[in-house]
Amino acid sequence: MEIPPPLYKRSLSVEKLSGTHCESCDDLFYGEIEVCTNCGRQGKLETIKLPWEGKVYSSSTIHKAQQGFEDKLPYTTGTVELTNGVKVPALFDHNDRMIIGEEVKAKIGRIRKTQNGLVVYRPVWERRGEYSKPKPRINNSVKSSDNLREVGIEGYGVYIPRFRIKGEEVARVWGENPVKSIKSFPSKWDETGAYAMNATLSALKHSGLDGKDIEEIIVGSESHPYAVKPTATIVAGLIDSSGGAVDTEFACKAATEGMKFIMAQVENGFINYGLAIGADSAQAKPNDDLEYFAADGGVAFIIGKNKPIARLEGRPTSYTTDTPDFWRREYQYYPQHGGRFTGDPAYFKHIVGAGKGIMEKAGMKPSDFNYVIFHQPNGKFPFRVGKMLGFEKKQIEPGWLVSKLGNTYSGSSPLGLTATLDISEPGDKILIVSYGSGAGSDAFIFEVTDRIKEVKDLAPRTRELLDKNRNYLEYGEYAKFRQKIKKAD
Amino acid sequence: MREVAIIGVGMTKWGELWEKSLRDIYVETALLALEDAGIDKVDSMYVGSMSSGLFVGQEHIASLLADYLGQANIPSSRIESACASGGLALRLGYLEVASGVSDVVLVGGIEKMTDVSGHEATYALGTAADQEYEGYHGMTFPGLYALIARAHMEKYGTTREQLAMVAVKNHHNGSKNPLAQFPFQITVDSVLNSVMVADPLRILDCSPITDGAAAVVLYPAEMVKKKDKPMVKITGSGHATDTIALSSRKDITWLEAVYKAAKQAYKEANKGPKDIDIIEVHDCFTIAEICVLEALGIVEKGKGGDAVEEGMTSLKGKIPVNASGGLKAKGHPVGATGVAQVVEIVKQLQGNAGERQVKKARVGLAQNMGGSGGSSVVHIFERE
C-alpha cells in the first residue's frame, strides 16, 4: 500500500505551501480548502501562498519509520507555525531534537519516491540560525544601467548542502595515502532536483523577478533525477514558469552550454528572461580517484538584457573534440574515466583552446582581467592551466572553491563565477572557462556593472554557504546519505 | 427513549493469537457474551473494526461474523472510527435499543493485527491520521502523540517520569488481569531505558499490537427479568469529532473531541466528573491518558501528569483509572478496545473484577478515542 499524495497536488512534483484565506472571517488555513471551518459554505475563500519561514511548534525524531521513509531513519518530523500563524506538518533537516519556538526556514528537499518511480519534492525545514538573513529589497530600479540593453546576468543563486567529508577520511577507509581535500555531500533530503530548485529560488530573490517572468529554463547536470523527464520541468512547476524547458548533459560543462543557449535567445529577442542552472550530485565510484572530489551543489543564473549585474562582452567561445576521457553509458551506475589521460589531451588542451580563442577574438590579454575562473576537477589543475594561459594566482583564487567544496561537476566553474561576482566591483572584467569531459570548453567574458552594489546582499553569498554552514561527517554517514548502501529486497 | 442495560459481557485472553483467525476469535468471544446473557438469538449486531482490510485482507465482516455466529439474515453493521470503532459500535447499539427499534443487540469489537509485519501494522494504524498531509510527511502514529507529549511538557512542565508512571500504573493493574496481553509489572527505569520509537516516546510508552475481541449484549432495562446479578445500565452516551490533522488544531495538548463527547455523556447521565468512581480511558500512549483526564474534567488542564504521580488514579486512589491494565498492559486490538473497556466497567460495577476489584464502584466511565483525538466516544454506566 502507498500513501496517496494530497489530492489537489497529485499532478505536481513540488508542494509550494499553499493555503486558504477566508475573506469573511479573515482566518487562514493550510492547504486549499473548499469550506471555511468558521463560516461554513458562506465563507468567501481565496488561495494564498504561505510564507516559508516560521518557528517549531512541536517536533519528534522518528525511530520507527512511516512507509517509504525507511532509508531516512532517524528523521525528524513535526509541526511548524508559520510567521502568519498557520500551522503546517513539517519534515526537518536535522536529526537532533528541535527546540520548541526555534526559528526555521524551508528549502526544497526530495522526500520520497512513489512506487511507480516518481520523485516527490516538498519543503524541508532547517534552522534559521545557520544563515544570515538576506536583506529586504529596497529599491528595484537602477538608473545607471537602465540604458544598457546588453545581455548579461540579472541575478544568481547558489545552494550547497551542509555536509562535508575530508579526503583523509575517504583515504582512511580505503587504505590510501591521505589526500588533502574537502567536499560537500547530500543530506538525506538533498538531491540534484532540489539543488536546482533551491538555487533558483535564491536567484529569483537576487534578481527581484517573479518566476512567471522566466521564459526558458535549462538545467545542466550529469545526475538528473530522471533519465526521461526534464529536471527543468520540475523547476518550471515550482516557480510557475510556463515557457520553454529542457535539460542538457555534457559532463561538467552542461550548465555553461545552457547559459549560452539562454543568452542567444535573449540576445535575439526570443525571450526577455531565461534561467540557466547547473546542479549535480556528482557521481563517483567508491575508492576511485574521483571520490575525493565528486561533490554536491547547484547554481542558477537569470539571464536578461534589462538590468544586468554582469554583462556579456563579445561572444562566448567554445572548443570541442571527441575525447573519451570520461563517460557513462545508460544503466551504468558510476562513470568511467581515462585516468592520467584526463590531463594534457583533455582538460588542458580544451581550456587553453577556448581561453586563447576568446581572448584573441576580444583582443584582450590575461592582465586585462581582474578575475578568471576555470573548471575545478581538483586543486592543482586550475592553477596549472592558469599559468599556461598567463594568469596569476591572485586572479584565480577568489573563484577557486575546490579545496573547500570539491568538484560539483556542472556547478563547478559557475559556482566559481558566483563567488567571484560576490566580491567584484563595477567595471571588473571576469573570464570564465568551463570544461566538460568528452570533451569541450565554453568561455565567456563578463564586465561587472554598477548594479552589483545594489544586489550583493539579497541572497546568500557563495563563500558564506561554503564556510558558515557545514558539518564534517564520517564515511559511514557519507555512504548512507550518498545512497551507496544497497539493501537487499 | 428506553433505559438500556448490559446483560452479558464476553472477553477472551488477548495476545498474539497466531492459531486463531479473525472469525474464530470473534465467535469465541461473542458466544461468551451470549452465554453470560442467557440469549441465543439477537435482533441486530454491530461490530467495531478499524481495518480488517489492511490487517487480514477481509472487508464486509459484519455479514461474515453474523454468519459464523449462526445469526445469518439479521441486520449486522461494521462500524469504523479508527481506534474508537468499538466505542462507537456500542453507542449505535445503545441508540437502537433505546429507540425501541430492537430489543436484543450484540455489540462486538475485533482486530486481528499480528498476521501482518510490524511495519505493515504501523502503516495500517497510520491511516487513522491525515494520510495526505501527515503520513505523506513521514509522520507516524507514535510520532503524532510524541508531538502532543512535547507540547504538553513544554506548556505545563509535565515530566518524562510522569509519562512513564502512567505505563507503570497500568502494568501494575494489568498484572492482576489474567486476560491481559502483558500481565506483568514494569518500572519507571525500564520505561526510560526502553527503545526509542518517536522522541520522547519509547516502546514502553506505547500500547502493543494485539489480536483480540470483546462483546456485550444490550437489552431494554424494563424487560430484564433475571436478577441473578446486579444490573448495569448505560446512562450517558457522547460522541464528537475533531480535525483529523493535528496541525489544524489551535492547541494540540487539548482533546476537544473528548471534552465534547464527555459533556454530552455527563449531561445525559446527569452526572459530573466528581460523581465517577472508576474510569477506563484510551491510553494508546502514556501522554494520551494524561490529556484525556484533563479533557474529561477529572483534573485541571495541565495537571494530568501530577495526578498520576500523586497516585490519584491508581487502583487504591481517589479515581482508579484503567484498572484493567488499560490499552498498555491489556493490549490494544484497535476495534475491540472500546468494547473491552465496557466489559471491564461492567465487571467492576458488578463486583466481578477479581484481584483488581475497585471497592464501592457504582458509577463508571469509559472513554474511547480515534486517531490522535480526531474522534472520541464517552459512556457512563451505573449499577442499580
How does the SSE layout of this entry go?
The complex is a heterodimer of chains A (489) and B (384).
Chain A: E1 18-22, E2 28-30, E3 45-49, E4 53-62, E5 75-82, E6 87-92, E7 103-113, E8 119-127, E9 152-159, E10 163-166, H1 167-174, E11 182-185, H2 192-207, E12 216-220, H3 231-239, E13 244-248, H4 254-267, E14 273-281, E15 296-304, E16 310-320, E17 326-327, E18 336-337, H5 343-362, E19 371-374, H6 381-389, H7 393-396, H8 402-405, H9 412-423, E20 429-433, E21 440-448, H10 452-455, H11 462-467, E22 471-472, H12 475-481
Parallel strand pairs in A: 10-22, 12-13, 12-14, 19-20
Antiparallel strand pairs in A: 1-2, 1-3, 4-5, 4-7, 5-6, 7-8, 9-15, 9-16, 10-11, 14-15, 16-21, 17-18, 20-21
Chain B: E1 4-11, H1 22-37, E2 44-48, H2 52-56, H3 61-68, E3 76-79, H4 85-98, E4 105-112, H5 118-126, H6 141-156, H7 160-174, H8 188-192, E5 196-198, E6 201-202, E7 211-220, E8 232-241, H9 256-269, E9 278-280, H10 286-295, H11 304-309, H12 326-330, H13 334-350, E10 363-370, E11 375-383
Parallel strand pairs in B: 2-3, 2-4, 9-10
Antiparallel strand pairs in B: 1-7, 1-8, 4-7, 5-6, 8-11, 10-11
Helix pairs in contact in B: 4-13, 7-10
